[in-house]
């Protein structure tokens, strides 16, 4: 099945399943406020996913329970995992059918069923804090009807029928609905699969040979994994290149509910649940000392890091041995801290794809934390490419966004250079918007962007009326020296005021100039400043190095303005139209009115 048809089928399956699950809201209405529905629907969706996935091996597991009664817990656990076919299992005699067959005892029996899950599933359930919701529903005669709704034939969520990709979409759709109800910040958005596929393909573009052959093992890390869809997509894409490759995924997530979803999905996919960490990546790093082949993430932007400040500052003060020794961005936006964390987690041959908004390109003056972080990345020759995405690509925000590709080991032709790709116009409009997401990067659009990236040329690429443009720059073209230009004080007769034979600077006339690193500062000064201010001088003690990536300016195309005659003619026609409309409405001739 080609990707277009597969995506269409997935989209239909996801919308159908999400709508069915959303029907539970009718049962909860009145008992819960709309923004609280997620307290029930998200954990119930996870439980149903686990329930249905284990159904095919349920009889074998129950048989194994009887056969292993005399064994110690460790041995018993191994046999039960083997019987279930997964790293988790449920030893309870209940399933949803049996629960519904005894409505009078459904609360107690449902708790018995949940307690029957293996130990490695218990923390997942605990993270939902679902126990109090069970009591609330039971006390209000809603628990039976919620389980009944989830037990409908069309609500089946087993892994044999609903793929990990589809399930991920279902979770994202549900979480998105709830985040909208909570009115969460625009930066805390979710990444749609078209963007994820572009990120994975850009990451893997240079590694196709390394992924071929036998005994290939690759590690993938997502520092803000949400429901782990980037990790599952990376596994999927690597296996497209090499079916036998072993892909080991690692992820950390701040939100307990989305962490629970990610961990359960990882276990269903056969991943190691111990590779999933809960907590703030910035202040509670769960993977100290780890490095990975690939890092992929969409961290929050435009969101402050006040809660992490003490821990981040302490690590900054550690200098080179800390993740944040390079510099700290302003407290109102922590996205570049995630970039530093990601870099610290890369192997010497590692590659990272990370999404930022526009402020990461240019915010902060020379010497600021943001500028120093950009300088650190560029001067180490780790910044490989930046791709501007189309606006309206994300569910919860329509602002300009960019994929940064960072690598510790550039190929020879890319060394000392950065590729910028403007793909803002390479998209297909959606027939139906999903939140703020109004466009998709279709397979053909993605291939065009990947071609531009892979060919590494100064060139425009066209797909019908769509265009993507690639430009190559040397690293130092993004750097500049901010110099301080002083003008001397003068007395009332225009004479210089001297102190110990030297002119005194007039602070009110102090100015600065950003001089590109590629230019000689003195030559620039003599050409651009002295002709207009012959008494000026540069205080070189105040020099500061800055780095910024003026993406928009670098892709700006000058448009010749319309001739004034055409503009005047258009205004004249507009005035005549307005006069005619007024006369029609009033019945008066206003042509002679001054």
TrEMBL record:
It catalyses: a 2'-deoxyadenosine in DNA + S-adenosyl-L-methionine = an N(6)-methyl-2'-deoxyadenosine in DNA + S-adenosyl-L-homocysteine + H(+). Its EC number is 2.1.1.72. GO terms for biological process: DNA restriction-modification system; methylation. Residues 166-478 form the DNA methylase adenine-specific domain. Gene3D superfamilies: Vaccinia Virus protein VP39. One of its GO terms (molecular function) is DNA binding. The keyword S-adenosyl-L-methionine applies. The keyword Transferase applies. Residues 19-150 form the N6 adenine-specific DNA methyltransferase N-terminal domain. Pfam families: HsdM_N, N6_Mtase. PROSITE patterns: N6_MTASE (PS00092). Keywords: Methyltransferase, Restriction system, S-adenosyl-L-methionine, Transferase. It comes from the Bacteria. PANTHER family: SLR6095 PROTEIN, TYPE I RESTRICTION ENZYME MJAVIII METHYLASE SUBUNIT. This is site-specific DNA-methyltransferase (adenine-specific). It comes from Enterococcus caccae ATCC BAA-1240.
